[in-house]
Amino acid sequence: MSSPIHIDDPGDPRLADYRQVRERDLVGRQGGFIAEGVVVLEKLIGAGRHPLSSVLVAEKRLERLAPLLAGLSADVPIYAASQAVMDAVVGFPIHRGVLAAGVRAKPDLEALLAALPERALVVGLVGIANHDNMGGLFRNAAAFGANAVLLDDGCCDPLYRKAIRVSVGAALTVPFARAGAAGDLTGRLATAGFTVLALSPRGEHELAALKPAGRTAVLFGAEGPGLPPDLLARVRTVRIAMAGGFDSLNVATASGIVLHQLTVTRDRLQALRALS
């Protein structure tokens, strides 16, 4: 851990990554991202998936954050500023008192698939354009032990600041990669030996009756349009039973139900095999 560098001038060029955060979120960060909050920073440091370029901390929080900051490499500068200076740099009151500038890793899809275990669970996302939903999907993927998330070209950025925050840092810990168009994503999974399931209100199979395969991938589409009909025609479709007159859920909610069901069923089957 490097010694904190105290900054008194909001115009200090060393804080360029943190200047006017919301505006920079909109125009993009050319391979970088911003992580916000203590819990998210813990996930970022602990996972070690994405390098950090610096950390900005409110001076009043330095002492409490010292154990966490001690886990940083000595070559990662820690900038400390008063709350007023930090707010002026960021462009809004930053109540969480800690930001980190990271450099996104460049995952290789083939390497990611090759590294997955024989019994793996993958989440496939198609056309997810809402950052709240993206964050919720990653949070559920982490909570239920998904090994990876694959995204098609129509998905928004999981490392957008709001998506990271909603995911409670899971977007920084769960391995993910882009897989091209929706059809390409499905084809890559099939080639890698995955049984591909797709969520649809008109799915042929009831979720509760499903038994996960050794390698299982579950596809989720955007609310409203859902998954493309041509994709649904090529895979096994699954529905969640609901009360009459209602046929859809928020996609993040649906993912939580599905992933819980698959992991519970998988664990039960493994326990039965161990006893036989």
CATH class of the largest domain: Alpha Beta
Sequence of secondary-structure elements: EHEHEHEHEHEHEHEHEEEHEH
Second-tier CATH architecture of the largest domain: 3-Layer(aba) Sandwich
Number of strands: 12
Give the overall shape: elongated
Strand content: 15-25%
Q: List low-confidence stretches.
A: none
- The number of domains is 2
Helix content: 25-40%
Write down the overall mean pLDDT.
90
The fold-level CATH name of the largest domain is Alpha/beta knot
Structural class: alpha/beta
Main sheet strand line-up: 8-7-6-11-9-12-10
CATH superfamily of the largest domain: SPOUT methyltransferase, trefoil knot domain
Count every helix, treating DSSP H or I runs of 4 or more residues as helices.
10
What does this structure look like?
It contains ten helices and twelve strands. By secondary structure, it is α/β, with parallel strands linked by helices. It has two domains: about 5-105, 60s Ribosomal Protein L30, Chain: A; about 110-275, 3-Layer(aba) Sandwich (Alpha/beta knot), CATH 3.40.1280. The protein has a seven-stranded parallel sheet with strand order 8-7-6-11-9-12-10, with helices on both faces. Helix 6 (about 130-145) packs parallel to helix 10. The longest helix has 25 residues, at about 250-275. The chain is elongated and about 60 Å long.
